[in-house]
Specification:
Elements: E1 2-7, H1 23-39, E2 44-47, H2 60-70, E3 75-78, E4 81-82, H3 88-102, E5 107-111, H4 118-121, H5 129-145, E6 149-151, E7 159-162, E8 175-179, H6 184-193, E9 196-199, H7 206-222, E10 233-241, H8 245-257, H9 268-274, E11 278-280, H10 282-296, E12 301-305, H11 313-338, H12 350-359
Parallel strand pairs: 1-2, 1-12, 2-3, 4-5, 5-8, 8-9, 9-10, 10-11, 10-12
Antiparallel strand pairs: 6-7
Helix pairs in contact: 1-2, 1-11, 2-3, 3-5, 6-7, 10-11
Length: about 375
């Protein structure tokens, strides 16, 4: 099973000091977090994509290319690649280039984002969001698999005899996740292509995401990619840890109370009761994360958000170390012991997809 961290790249003042990092400091902090994730034995680092303050990761492939040069094993991913407002031709070429630079250690998560104004900023209409997601990914899927593409759709200019360059490394496109927090159409899209479905269930109660994941699993089987319980599922989570749970709650409370997204809303206690947020000891994080399997079935990737709301870099790196040393080893062992033999233990990687291509096996597409 793959474990890692994802960052939304927010620049938020530390509520305990009032100081906000500069954009340069925040960008360098994200790199440092990714490097520490590899050192701590985690598998994945994923960055979001935003084009508005207070966020900095507007160019995920630039950041991930830099991190690729500073790491050896880490899978480099996105927590969102905006399939609705990015040109699919540019996505195809940027991520194929990153594949080559990173030796294949690349996958990505398609999403529509959570910032409505991004649509007109890039010349799109938010009312076309679902249609853009479906059409743009159909084109991207073809660009990575066909050397010469003729294409015409509703939302961009036609292509005639077009070849995107470079071609995917070893002829194997990056594995794709489709991320959604509310749209059954995206779960259907992931199932149709046999791609992964990522439910970043960090804000809403589990029942909502149970329905989305169940739909994805049923339709994955319907389209002939495998049994429903073999579908490739990823989940989000949020943690803040200290050895003593009371210390964790006391230290994290001001960050939670003033967080840009959920601050000044439900209490910390209410939020931890209704969402995956765990504030406490490593043992409590393990206990709660293991319950995810009860709700959603066996799954292949778990990403944690740990660097938001103005938390200092030193504190975040401590969280990475605790995940790597105390939490993830136990989760790996416990999840593996419960997983049926026919269910994939991990999401497809470049190595596994390339090996399947060489042997002519049917692979997740």
């Amino acid at each position: 099973m793959q474990f890692g961290i994802f960052s939304v790249g927010d620049v938020t003042p530390d509520p305990t000091t009032g100081r906000a990092p500069s954009e340069a400091e925040r960008i360098k902090a994200m790199v440092a977090i990714a490097e520490r994730a590899e050192q701590a034995g985690l598998d994945v680092f994923a960055t979001g994509e935003h084009h508005n303050p207070p966020f900095v990761p507007s160019s995920p492939t630039t950041m991930l290319g830099y991190i690729a040069a500073r790491t050896e094993r880490l899978i480099l991913s996105t927590a969102t690649t905006l399939i609705t407002t990015n040109d699919p031709v540019k996505i195809a070429e940027d991520f194929a280039m990153l594949q080559h630079l990173a030796g294949g250690r690349v996958d990505l998560m398609m999403g529509r984002g959570n910032t409505g104004p991004v649509y007109p900023w890039f010349g799109k209409d938010i009312r076309d969001g679902i249609a853009l997601a479906i059409e743009n990914y159909n084109l991207l899927h073809r660009l990575w698999r066909e050397d010469v593409v003729d294409w015409q759709g509703e939302h961009r200019t036609p292509l005639q005899a077009f070849t995107s360059t470079p071609r995917p490394l070893d002829g194997v496109p990056p594995f794709v996740w489709h991320g959604s927090i509310r749209s059954p159409e995206i779960a259907e899209q992931a199932a149709f292509y046999g791609d992964g479905f990522f439910a970043n269930h960090i804000f809403w109660p589990k029942e909502h995401f149970q329905r989305l994941i169940a739909l994805y699993r049923r339709r994955y089987e319907h389209y002939g990619h495998g049994a429903a319980d073999q579908a490739i599922v990823g989940l989000g989570g949020q943690v803040f840890m200290r050895r003593n749970s009371q210390d964790a709650v006391r230290e994290f409370r001001p960050y939670f109370d003033n967080a840009p997204v959920y601050g000044h809303g439900p209490s910390l206690e209410e939020f931890t009761a209704e969402t995956p947020l765990t504030v406490g000891s490593p043992e409590q994080v393990i206990e709660k994360t293991l319950t995810f399997r009860d709700y959603f079935g066996d799954y292949q990737r778990q990403l944690f958000l740990i660097d938001h709301a103005g938390l200092p870099l030193k504190t975040v790196l401590e969280q990475v170390d605790m995940l790597g040393e105390e939490v993830v080893p136990v989760l790996r062992k416990e999840f593996e012991a419960l997983r049926p033999a026919h269910v994939p233990a991990t999401a497809p990687t470049h190595a596994s997809l390339a090996a399947a291509k060489r042997t002519g096996e049917e692979v997740v597409r």
